[in-house]
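Quick one: structure for this chain?
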Amino acid sequence: MRLMLATLLTVCLAAPAAGQSRPLVTEDPETVPAGFLLLEGGIDYLRGVEYPASGLGGNLFRAGTFGVSIGISTIAELQFDGGLRSRLAIRDRDVTAPLAGQVTAIGDTSSTLEDLLIGAKVRFVSETDARPAIALRFATRVPAASDESGIGTGTFDFTIGLAAAKTVQSIRVATNFGIAMLGSPVAGHERNQAFAYGLSVARAVAPGVELVGEFNGRADVGEGTPPPGTESRAAGRFGGRITRGPIRLDAAVVVGATDRDPSLGVTAGFTWVFKGFEVK
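Got it. Here's what it folds into:
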């Protein structure tokens, strides 16, 4: 039911931008201009989040989520994403989970930093009237979240894939697809493979105002049962963005598509683009 609802919401909300950003997570192939910086910040509140590896479940509040994209040339950018604090209001505990014994949170809450995502994007095909823009993107997730919190897994993940997008009148559509190599938090299990995907739509409805929607996730393609923490995940997002000069404000509703994803959530934040340095 969640999958059907998330898909319907994504299709019904159409939306463009010079490059997709918050509240969407699907990558647009367009890069930040050379010498410019794009800063993102926000907060999330997600209900019904599950962590199969640690056995914890509950409502997650993420404060100080951030993203930094640096334009290092006319076709390439570096990316850094993370969060200052994740706090889980624990509603469920599965003591049979493989990492349940490592969790040190004995009360009804647990908190930690977010993992850090380090990546790069290179656009190798520019958009024209007849073709979409296409870019190569790769990223590594570095474990910063504490294993003992039950939120982090202490593993490295690597993703490589393509991003493509095309604008038609007031509508911009972007899609992602690639392969994710997910580190297993359970001893004795090797890395798991997943197909990473995303589809986003943005539509301008007034000067500086957009409606946005997307469906984004990963699908397990490894052999056998995926190790806990590497299962399929997906969610739909729909909301809006308001741009005033170099600042963009955004808000969206999040609908999970699996039992491990949030049943419902909200996110809100800002994006700021500014000139940071000269590229020679």
